[in-house]
Records
---
Amino acid sequence: MLGKILSKSPLDGFVLSIMLAVVVAAFLPATGAFADVLDYVVIAAIALLFFLYGTRLHPKEALEGLTHWRLHLTILGFTFVLFPIIGVVLAPLLKHLIGDDLSMGMLYLTLVPSTVQSSIAFTSIARGNVPGAIVSASVSNLLGVFLTPLLVVWLMSTDSGVQFSGASITKLMLEILLPFIVGQLLRPWVAPWLARYAEPTKYVDRGSIVLVVYVAFSEGVREGLWSLVSAWQVVLMTIIATVLVIVMLLLSGWLPKRLGFSRADTIAIQFCGTKKSLATGLPMATVLFAGSSVGLIVLPLMIFHQVQLILCSWLATRYGRQAEPVPAA
């Protein structure tokens, strides 16, 4: 019965698990020695996560696929140029509406890379350019490992109170960049084994994200997170996220047509250029904002992720129906 209910839900199992982790953290947060142990477990989980990312992304395939450079540059432009510009422009207004930490979280979500699996899946459902989506989404995540921290340092360290010391940079290198590079180097030997055990591996990386969410929100609860966030702020963030997704979908549907892209390419641009990765953004936040209110900072990204899944799922299904051949009379 529960399986049937979940299968009909607009929320996928991964998102439901994340929401459950938030609920558990709200009522049963990690405390004391257990919290200390989980901190070390999270460090290992983040390193494992980015190691797996490194083994999955094939640099050669990504480079060979870059021949459609206009498509990829357009998608990267939406992800790492237009999104951050919107985030910076909205930041002063959002500070007054939802507060400093949540507005910082809204800015942070505009800086993270695109999703991989859902971008490709939605492009496929909508009958778009799937090979182009695979390359662009992969390159976005590949570049995001380097670009997102740089954008955070550039756009957030001055006004938001986020400061980066030598220790935090070393932590970033050891927990994110080094495992990713090691994964790239070991890919020829590790990738075949991971391909044979793709299903268990999926649960490993998704489980890591759920763990990161639980630990981050446990810390937030210990610091009085829910006393700092009102129901009105959550509603307001949901409205802002919904408007932002709709605006980006409209822009990414309008501009490519003006630039002469085909329907298939336009669909790939829409679903790759407007998505933000929860799987990459959450672990990065625990490293980049160590010592800050990580729970508050990642909350807008979690809300945005859910909104984008629902709206993009509807749009992809609509495009797919439009592309179906009309039966002969």
---
Amino acid sequence: MRVLVVEDEQLLADAVATGLRREAMAVDVVYDGAAALERIGVNDYDVVVLDRDLPLVHGDDVARKLVELGMPTRILMLTASGDVSDRVEGLEIGADDYLPKPFAFSELTARVRALGRRTSMPLPPVLERAGIKLDPNRREVFRDGKEIQLAPKEFAVLEVLLRSEGAVVSAEQLLEKAWDENTDPFTNVVRVTVMTLRRKLGEPAVIVTVPGSGYRI
């Protein structure tokens, strides 16, 4: 899942981004509304965690632009105000969910995951294929009943492959969904991560390389 965090309190923004990355999400961070609009015009995001009171371009205007563009991106709006009227206004502007500050990080993560599931075709909360079971909420992976410990990027790549339901996923698509925009597009990080993931999943290999196209399970 790819997430954009838009928050002008830099310490909070960076803390949220770090926490979401530990949950195997690809996260970009900006600190004002103008930068948010710039990123949205370049990258496809599953979820935007959007502070409402932003400098340069207000969060409300960022939300309106996302709605105007007709993008499938889901918006989790943050604000220091928890008044019912503010929540209603935020939802009417185009937010899909609303979370007042201060918030528990576990709740933020759960809401981001729930919104991420709504950006694509409905899938069961636990993904299963070829003897592999992946639970995004519990961050657990099993193969044939045996638990497998994965690093965050390995988990993210496996989740993307399982969500494709057998379709081929290109290296570029994996890079977009599992890494943030600071990753060099010419790096071999995808190939190396897939190799490590194959080794951890064990034999027989379930990740198939499709020459010239990508990978599938």
---
Amino acid sequence: MGKYYSPTGGLPPQTHLTTERAIVTEAYTVIPKGVMTDIVTSNLPGFSNTRSWIIARPISGFATTFSQLIVEIGPGGGAPKAEFEAGVEGVIFVTRGKVNLTLDGELHQLEEGGYAYLAAGSEWGLENVSGDVVSFHWIRKAYERLEGYEAKSFVTNEKDVEPTAMPDTDGAWKTTRFTDSSDLAHDMQVNIVTFQPGGVIPFPETHVMEHGLYVLEGKAMYLLNNDWVEVEAGDFMWLRAFCPQACYAGGPGEFRYLLYKDMNRQVRLT
């Protein structure tokens, strides 16, 4: 069992209570891990021995800037070409197993914690050459080009990136940033946020950035608009722009989530 939560599918028995923690509102959505069963998975064009849970997509009243998938590839499966849509950038973050990534003709092996930024226009594919399943998050966004700047693909691992402590928190709240926030080549970030037990977001953040949050480890109370919601590893949260958010991580262990946000672009009005 790895350190990051990955869904395993299955189907609850007929005796299982129907009540769950799923919430859908105009301001936010919570998709709890308990509803990610076999019957809500989707096949992906070009992939073999693969299934996916699509947990965010552009749709009225939901995500507007991105899509997010949890992808599971069985032994021998994958896709020689994964991205078919022109102008789309992506991020892969591996939560279980190992997968071979061929990126613009170069081979990389991604294991748990592996992170790849896949620039728009890059050629890439995946192959599971191991004897076990591999699970990863795949976040996709239409790249908004900015004259004089161009985002470049790269591959790394979480363990090779030093987290940055948020100001005046004594390390109780840290962010692992895989790209520099000041780099205007990037119009989005996919980071990892870590709270130590007792760590908090001490005010209701209210901002223009849309968020997707997948809980990798632990549990916490999360403020979504006017509601305090208890979330745990395996849960996904979507927050629309300007939805107030805060967090209290009560422990006993670390609370960590994968965070998507759009950034570094002017608001289009025409």
